[in-house]
Amino acid sequence: MTPWFGLIVLLGSWSLGYWGAEACTCSPSHPQDAFCNSDIVIRAKVVGKKLVKEGPFGTLVYTIKQMKMYRGFTKMPHVQYIHTEASESLCGLKLEVNKYQYLLTGRVYDGKMYTGLCNFVERWDQLTLSQRKGLNYRYHLGCNCKIKSCYYLPCFVTSKNECLWTDMLSNFGYPGYQSKHYACIRQKGGYCSWYRGWAPPDKSIINATDP
């Protein structure tokens, strides 16, 4: 599962009733952006699944047991089913049944929750303590801030509501230290800056990732 939320590019050609080539491509997204841009954010366990005949390859419908909701109380206060494309080439998501609790994000269409590979989806036991705190309150505080991606140097913030996201510059790539341990929160004076909380410093990465 790739915790990326963003651009979906489908490359395909129709030939003799088949897709000639298909791909799911997602742009990197910080977990806070994924949280703020989602209609629904929940912790849940998958307890069942079925394939229904919708779309070119069908739709997987997962039955879930919702443990906690972090975002989406007015959209859908209780989620029982989540929908995703059956094909991974169309960004469909594969989840284990009766095995793990997941952090699930997605959008609501026609009263149904949809998710996929470009949404932030992760096993709950793989989230850091800072990410869990972010889900509870920190990410919400930063939804008016903008996280600006930096892919190569030099890169700069251009307004006071921006935080510079430099995980892609480190040798470890994405997801990196800022994704795992930082939230971008508005401070006094209206400026947004990275907030780390109690996460221990990591001296193995470049200074640009440790604001």
TrEMBL record:
Q: Which GO terms describe its biological process?
A: negative regulation of extracellular matrix disassembly; negative regulation of membrane protein ectodomain proteolysis; response to cytokine; response to hormone
Q: Name one GO molecular function term.
A: metal ion binding
Entry keyword annotation includes Zinc:
yes
- Look up keyword Nucleotide-binding and say if it applies: no
Between which residues do disulfide bridges form?
Answer: C24-C91, C26-C118, C36-C143, C145-C192, C150-C155, C163-C184
The UniProt entry, under InterPro entries, shows: Netrin_domain, TIMP, TIMP-like_OB-fold, TIMP_C, TIMP_CS
What Pfam family is a match, any one? TIMP
Q: Which residues form the signal peptide?
A: 1-23
Residues engaged in binding Zn(2+): C24
Positions of the NTR domain: 24-143
**Cellular compartments annotated:** Secreted, Extracellular space, Extracellular matrix
Gene Ontology, cellular component aspect: basement membrane; extracellular space; secretory granule lumen
Q: What are the UniProt keywords, alphabetically?
A: Disulfide bond, Extracellular matrix, Metal-binding, Metalloenzyme inhibitor, Metalloprotease inhibitor, Protease inhibitor, Secreted, Signal, Zinc
Family classification: Belongs to the protease inhibitor I35 (TIMP) family.
Oligomeric and partner information: Interacts with EFEMP1. Interacts with KDR.
Spell out the protein name for this chain: Metalloproteinase inhibitor 3
